[in-house]
């Protein structure tokens, strides 16, 4: 752990110790697995690889490190520190069980799940015994950046809900054991917990994507007359969007934490290269065109870190809203994308090969600007808030 992490406030000694252990584990144990060939034909890591890493994390005492043995949880600022360390390798969050969608699903179930649902669905996730998937996004014409367009339906039939519809870009669905499905009743959006696999939930396609860091990829799904017991609904009929916000705002922030770690590692590789590589009679770092890019990286990384910590502090107060999470998601994803892009540029031809992890970091971080809402949607949402706030101010002044 760097001296900066050990001196800045907001972290308990316990959190600093956990973060140090996670960083050591990811750097020493996980990174050698980055060359492991246990991948599917899309390039995503196989569960056999992830399970092996989880066992090593369990033995090292760093599995699900942000959730404490007594069931307590680190503060969000402390979680940010730990998740940044887990993100130093693409495989790190998978190994220590801080990855999406599992981390967000655990957060949601921990907040709103009944004791029975926690016992059945949450505990195996926390223990790293299975993976999960969150079924919200739909094909064209359905829910995506605008969840109100949801077309997947759910109707009561006796003591069961019957769900029908199609979903798209469902991360990790192939191989998951726990599913959280969003569907629309006459009352509005609903959310259900289901066991996977289920014959009524069919994976119709797993497209090749720019990112290849998630087991199971991003599947397209058909749900055909899925019967779910009524007691597996989260909350009441029509409350699904409320629960989605409980999950999505912190989940966006968790993405920022993990990808910050990836960008830090990419910058480390680029910095090492620039200080070793010679061109035109001096090292690359001594050429302003290269040195300035690395200086810009430091500024973008610090800006992203400060935004993450600010948003984490707001979340710890219970006041995190859509605006705050949108600002963090846009600021951090755009800053980290610039960092990754510069790292590729610093490495030149090497940067577009698989000879270092920078090319892989670049692809994964680039995808981050799209999922959990593209930059433009978040800016649009913020612009609407600016207009609402302005109108409210004008009305208050007039009164």
Automatic annotation (TrEMBL):
SUPFAM superfamilies: Acyl-CoA dehydrogenase C-terminal domain-like, Acyl-CoA dehydrogenase NM domain-like. Residues 133-225 form the Acyl-CoA oxidase/dehydrogenase middle domain. Its cofactor is FAD. The keyword Nucleotide-binding does not apply. Residues 238-385 form the Acyl-CoA dehydrogenase/oxidase C-terminal domain. Keywords: FAD, Flavoprotein, Oxidoreductase. Pfam families: Acyl-CoA_dh_1, Acyl-CoA_dh_M, Acyl-CoA_dh_N. Belongs to the acyl-CoA dehydrogenase family. Homodimer. This is Acyl-CoA dehydrogenase family protein. It comes from Sphingomonas immobilis.
